[in-house]
Specification:
The chain folds into 3 domains: 97 residues, Translation factors (Elongation Factor Tu (Ef-tu), domain 3); 112 residues, Nucleotide-binding domain of ferredoxin-NADP reductase (FNR) module (Rossmann fold), CATH 3.40.50.80; 60 residues, no CATH class. With 289 residues, it is of the alpha/beta class. It contains 7 helices and 15 strands.
C-alpha cells in the first residue's frame, strides 16, 4: 500500500554522472521490495513543475539513526532532476511509495543473471541481496555508453559471483553491448533466470536473448510516468496476457516489472491493431460487429 511522506534529505553523494539521495521514508522502508519505485515531487511548493518524477528504489534501511530511509539514484538532465541533485541535508522532499509491482523471487536456489544499463542498474542491488539470501547464484552484467555512465560497479563486485562490464566506447570493461556479456555469462554459469533494468532498447535485446535460449526473464521497464498511480495513462505499453490477448497496460501499476517474453517490444509507443479495444478490433468501438 503506497503512502505519502515528507522525507528529509539525509545525504546526497556523487556517483559518476549520478547522485544518490538518501531520504527518510518512515514505514515505507519496511514494505519496499526490489523493483518498487517512488514518485517524488520536484521544484518545491511554489514550483511550476507539477508532475512528479519516478525513481527506482536503490536501497532501503529499515532502522537507524534516522529511522527508515530509502535511496534513489538521480541523473540530472532536466529542471526537475537538477533540482533534486541540488538538495542538501535537511531539505524536505515529498515522496509517494512504494509503487508498482516488484520483481518476483524464485522459491528455490537458481542461477540468476542481473543486467543493468546505466543508472537503470539501481534496483538490482537490493535484488541481488535478497537472491543471495535465498541461496541463489548471482552474476551481474553492467553496461553503459562510457565509464562515467556506469553505476554501482564496486557495489556489484562486493555481492556478485562475477561482474561483467561493457561500454559502448570501450572506456571500461569490454567494448560492446550488455547482451555480449550476458551471452557469455549464461553459457558459463547455466543461468536460469535473467533480471534486467535499463533503457527499453536494452531490455528488448535482453528479453529476446533470454527467450531464444529458453530462459525466464523479468524486465523493469523505463516508461515515462507522470502520476505513478495509474491515472494519467502516459506509461501504457502492449503486453500479451496469459490468454494470448494483447492489452495496453499501465507500467506504473501493472509493472514496472514484466515477464520479458510478454512485452511487445517492437510495438512499444504504439497501439498494435490487434490489441484488445483498439479501433477495428472485433467488439471494439468502431470495429467489426
Amino acid at each position: 500500500m503506497p503512502n505519502q511522506y515528507r522525507g528529509d534529505v539525509v545525504s546526497v553523494r556523487r556517483a559518476g554522472s549520478y547522485f544518490v539521495l538518501t531520504l527518510t521514508a518512515g514505514a515505507m522502508a519496511e514494505t519496499a521490495r526490489p523493483g518498487h519505485f517512488v514518485a517524488l515531487a520536484i521544484g518545491g511548493e511554489e514550483s511550476g513543475l507539477l508532475l512528479r518524477r519516478a525513481f527506482s528504489i536503490h536501497g532501503v534501511q529499515q532502522r537507524g539513526v534516522f529511522g527508515g530511509t530509502v535511496d534513489v539514484v538521480v541523473s540530472p538532465h532536466g529542471a526537475g532532476t537538477r533540482w533534486l541533485a541540488q538538495r542538501h541535508r535537511g531539505d524536505t522532499v515529498d515522496i509517494v511509495g512504494p509503487l508498482g509491482r516488484p520483481f518476483s523471487l524464485p522459491r528455490d536456489p537458481v542461477s540468476c543473471a542481473l543486467v543493468g544499463g546505466g543508472y537503470g542498474s539501481a534496483p538490482l542491488f537490493m535484488l541481488a541481496e535478497q537472491l543471495r539470501a535465498r541461496g541463489c547464484r548471482v552474476d551481474m552484467v553492467l553496461g553503459a555508453a562510457n565509464e562515467d555512465k556506469l553505476f554501482g560497479v564496486l557495489e556489484a563486485k562486493r555481492m556478485a559471483s562475477t561482474v561483467t562490464i561493457t561500454t559502448d566506447d570501450g572506456s571500461a570493461g569490454v567494448r560492446g553491448r550488455v547482451t555480449d556479456g550476458l551471452a557469455k555469462v549464461m553459457a558459463s554459469h547455466g543461468t536460469e533466470v535473467v533480471y534486467a533494468c535499463g533503457p527499453m532498447g536494452m531490455l528488448a535485446a535482453v528479453a529476446q536473448m533470454a527467450t531464444e535460449t529458453g530462459v525466464y526473464s523479468q524486465c523493469a521497464v523505463e516508461e515515462s510516468m507522470a502520476c505513478g498511480i495509474g491515472v494519467c495513462m502516459t506509461c501504457v505499453l502492449p503486453v500479451i496476457g496469459d490468454d494470448g490477448v494483447t492489452r495496453m497496460v499501465r507500467s506504473c501499476v501493472d509493472g514496472p516489472v514484466f515477464r520479458g517474453d510478454t512485452v511487445r517490444w517492437a510495438d512499444v509507443g504504439t497501439v498494435p491493431p490487434d490489441t484488445l479495444g483498439a479501433p477495428g478490433v472485433l467488439g471494439a468501438p468502431g470495429g467489426n460487429r
